UniProtKB/TrEMBL annotation:
The gene is NPC2. Its main location: secreted. It comes from Astyanax mexicanus. Belongs to the NPC2 family. It is found in: Secreted. CDD domains: Npc2_like. Residues 1-19 form the signal peptide. It comes from the Eukaryota. This is NPC intracellular cholesterol transporter 2. Gene3D superfamilies: 2.60.40.770. One of its GO terms (cellular component) is extracellular region.
Length: 149
């Protein structure tokens, strides 16, 4: 069996084992619609992200367009200023989505949100976009978090 197929089947199941549905705001989804956002682990809201840990983010969305590719962009918004937030893999097609993305289908995008030990303890808003091959947002979501020791 193909390793990518196994990952595509098992990753969504693993993400749901301890995932908590979080409140989110849409920030300009143009080419799709988000139905649910889960972060694991996140027992309280806003999510407390502990330094040195990594968190699984699962976004369930439907696409309004066909797209061969998808690329994630993540920012931490601090005092209204978006600061680029690096994630391990910005390729959505390697993050739980089997590409090409098809119109009117539902997808579970899964990625990691690593929190480095050197990050300051701070409250911020995470802005997460997934763009199609014409650089329009399949989704754009915002959710509050707090980085703690």
């Amino acid at each position: 069996m193909d390793f990518r197929l196994i990952c595509a089947v098992l990753l969504p199941l693993l993400a749901f084992t301890r995932a908590e549905q979080v409140k989110f705001a849409d920030c300009g989804s143009v080419e799709g619609k988000v139905s649910q956002v889960d972060i694991s682990p996140c027992p309280t809201q806003p999510c407390e992200l502990h330094k040195g840990k990594s968190y699984t983010v699962n976004v369930t969305f439907s696409s309004d367009v066909d797209s061969q590719t998808s690329k994630a962009l993540v920012h931490g918004v601090i005092a209204g200023v978006p600061v680029p937030y690096p994630i391990p893999n910005e390729d959505g097609c390697k993050s739980g989505i089997q590409c090409p993305i098809q119109k009117q289908k539902s997808y579970s995008y899964i990625n990691e949100l690593p929190v480095k030990a050197e990050y300051p303890s701070i409250k911020l808003v995470v802005e997460w976009e997934l763009r199609d091959d014409s650089s329009k947002d399949l989704f754009c979501i915002k959710f509050p978090v707090q980085i703690v020791s």
